[in-house]
Structure formats: structure tokens, C-alpha cells
């Protein structure tokens, strides 16, 4: 990885992953592990959580994009991730709109400021 940037990983539905793969984010590491997981109806929560945990521990990943409806399935694992890198960003999907009240990063950020900080 010397001289190279970090990768973006994606955990999401087929449309989300396809869009990002067409944008050029698809990579395999030296162990031939991809930096994305397509979540389908038959994908187990254990597989999603295992993939998330493997992305968090990979030193070649700097950002993890995850559909918010998928993030809800493994909320405990996402809330337990406290490191700044890789950053975990929850994104909407075609079928599920974004809900800011469920986003773990926004909830943490709200806890850092009071209403008077913005006056």
C-alpha cells in the first residue's frame, strides 16, 4: 500500500453496489477478498456483521459505505466502532430513504454540541 490511498468499501443492496462498482471502487486485496458485499434477501445478518468487522480491520480501507437499512441490522457492531478510520457512512438506498435520526455518526455529533453552540 506504500504510495497508494485507501479504498472505499461498500455494504449494500445490488443497485448500490453496482453503482459504486461501475464508478470504479471494486478491488481485491492480496488475499483475493473484495471490498464490497451485495446484501440480498437470503444474506444472513452474521455474514453482514462478519464482513463489516473484516472491513474495519483491513488496513487498506479508509471509508465504509453502508446502506442505512443494512446498518440497522448490525447497529450494535456499527455503534461499537469508535475509530475515525475507517469512517463508516450510512447512505440511502433506492428502496429505503435516509433517516438522519438513525445515523450513528450524526447521533454522536449531536452529543458533542449544545443548542447554544449554534447561536
From TrEMBL:
<dbReference type="GO" id="GO:0033180">
    <property type="term" value="C:proton-transporting V-type ATPase, V1 domain"/>
</dbReference>
<comment type="subunit">
    <text>V-ATPase is a heteromultimeric enzyme made up of two complexes: the ATP-hydrolytic V1 complex and the proton translocation V0 complex.</text>
</comment>
<keyword id="KW-0406">Ion transport</keyword>
<keyword id="KW-0813">Transport</keyword>
<dbReference type="InterPro" id="IPR005772">
    <property type="entry name" value="ATPase_V1-cplx_fsu_euk"/>
</dbReference>
<keyword id="KW-0375">Hydrogen ion transport</keyword>
<comment type="similarity">
    <text>Belongs to the V-ATPase F subunit family.</text>
</comment>
<dbReference type="Pfam" id="PF01990">
    <property type="entry name" value="ATP-synt_F"/>
</dbReference>
<comment type="function">
    <text>Subunit of the V1 complex of vacuolar(H+)-ATPase (V-ATPase), a multisubunit enzyme composed of a peripheral complex (V1) that hydrolyzes ATP and a membrane integral complex (V0) that translocates protons. V-ATPase is responsible for acidifying and maintaining the pH of intracellular compartments and in some cell types, is targeted to the plasma membrane, where it is responsible for acidifying the extracellular environment.</text>
</comment>
<dbReference type="InterPro" id="IPR036906">
    <property type="entry name" value="ATPase_V1_fsu_sf"/>
</dbReference>
<protein>
    <recommendedName>
        <fullName>V-type proton ATPase subunit F</fullName>
    </recommendedName>
</protein>
<dbReference type="GO" id="GO:0046961">
    <property type="term" value="F:proton-transporting ATPase activity, rotational mechanism"/>
</dbReference>
<dbReference type="InterPro" id="IPR008218">
    <property type="entry name" value="ATPase_V1-cplx_f_g_su"/>
</dbReference>
Amino acid at each position: 500500500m506504500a504510495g497508494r490511498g485507501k479504498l472505499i468499501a461498500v455494504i449494500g443492496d445490488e443497485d448500490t453496489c453496482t453503482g459504486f462498482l461501475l464508478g470504479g471502487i471494486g478491488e481485491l486485496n492480496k488475499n483475493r477478498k473484495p471490498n464490497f458485499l451485495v446484501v440480498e434477501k437470503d444474506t444472513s445478518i452474521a455474514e453482514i456483521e462478519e464482513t463489516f468487522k473484516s472491513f474495519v480491520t483491513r488496513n487498506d480501507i479508509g471509508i465504509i459505505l453502508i446502506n442505512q437499512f443494512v446498518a440497522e441490522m448490525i447497529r450494535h457492531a456499527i455503534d461499537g466502532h469508535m475509530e475515525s478510520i475507517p469512517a463508516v457512512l450510512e447512505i440511502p438506498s433506492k428502496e429505503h430513504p435516509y433517516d438522519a435520526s438513525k445515523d450513528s455518526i450524526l447521533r454522536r455529533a449531536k452529543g458533542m454540541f449544545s443548542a447554544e453552540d449554534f447561536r
